[in-house]
Amino acid sequence: MSDNLLPPNATVLERALAQASAPLGELPVPLRELWNPDTCPEHLLPWLAWSLSLDSWQPYWPEAIKRERIRQAVEIARRKGTAKSVRDVVSSFGSSLALREWWQTMPKGTPHTFEVVLTLGAGVPNTAAYQQDIIGEIERTKPVRSHFTFTLGLSATGGLGLQGVARPIVYRRIQAVEAP
Q: Name one Pfam family in it (predicted).
């Protein structure tokens, strides 16, 4: 039985092309590795993002952020238009946020508004362009009728240290006698 699918009336050129391209079918294609954001080679990540319909992609993002954006792409798209999707999209950028909707503020705010306080995580670029990328993704993910106010928060970490110093001191009692 022949392995080609050419019809009986195939031309000589079609048969020659089928014969020349036959070895290509034997090449191994690691599809599981290519479709996995953790094992996909870095130079192919933009194509994986495109196939998952990510709305934005920047080459200056760190590799870990690119992989996390791809990893969460399906879940974000599934819940687009909800507060959870806004939280997920910000966490995919390696940041955290405090989100308060209009009914959670005291006094109650204007309906269909919310406040976002973004805190950038460690290891992410702290540039205006990166922050604008996050704001753009919030705009694309939020409910269409909602509006938000944005505040950039800062986080700092520090530590307390305890230091001790030992200093040997020798005390000697001096006895003095009065002169007669």
A: Tail_P2_I
> Does residue 1 have a pLDDT over 50?
no
- What is the spatial distance between Cα 23 and Cα 32, in angstroms, rounded to a whole number? 22
Nearest to 152 by CA among 179, 176, 130: 130
Q: Which string of b and e fits 133-165 if b means at least 16 CB within 10 Å?
A: bbbebbeebbeeeeebeeeeeeeeeeeeeeeee
The residue whose two tokens read 């109650």 is: 108
φ/ψ of residue 90, rounded to 5: -70, -40
Picking from 151, 146, 138, 152, the residue whose alpha carbon sits closest to that of residue 102 is 146
CB atoms within 10 A of CB 118: 19
